[in-house]
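Question:
Now give any protein.
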Amino acid sequence: MSGADAVGLETLVTELLEQHLIRLVEDGRSPVTLTTYRFAVGKLQKFIGGVRVGEASPARIDAALRSMRAAHGTTMARQAKTILRGALQLAVMANVLGSNPVRDVQPLRSKTQPEGAVGLTSDQLRELLQKLQMSKFCKDHDLVDPVTLLIATGLRRSELLGMHWTDYDDRACTLTVSGKVVRVRRRRPSTRGRDQVRRGRRTVPLPRFAVDAAEPPLAALSRLVFRMVGGHGLGL
């Protein structure tokens, strides 16, 4: 590296973070991933700001990431660690550091273990669906049918909102997950991205209660997404 991108022991770690993000853009990382990383970098800067490459010891980085975990949670601290590893690898590649100090930082563990979701019994599911149908709020906001599909399929909300009419097979009674709605900073949530990981594409069988109301939920989704993106439809 040379010029403005030259790396030395006096280079601020925050400068390497920005260089690393630029390289991720050049490598074609997804807009959602980049938005997540930029958000994490923004939070990380108050803990690592002012630290230079020559000062980026494992102990100092460990302290910064632990402070990050205390302030913003384990998930964001782990994201910050991933980004720091990539940023300081630029110093290794420039022969400024002999090894990446992030490598020697201890794993960040959650202080509490997730309990996981509790499965519903058939009676509880039936009661939930009945209450959903009776909810004035859900009816007024076109949520009854989309929530019914969420219950029936276990899809992520972004996957459900990315559904097209062609994803529904009325003969096989299935939905094919082929994309998702993504939120990108400073843009409308109207980007419908194809899953970059092929294993994300799958076909989901619909239970009877969802098949009986399959077309109305998709119609409701069309209205819901239309409102979300300010009148710009997604082809539902």
Summary: Residues 228-236 have pLDDT under 50 and may be disordered.
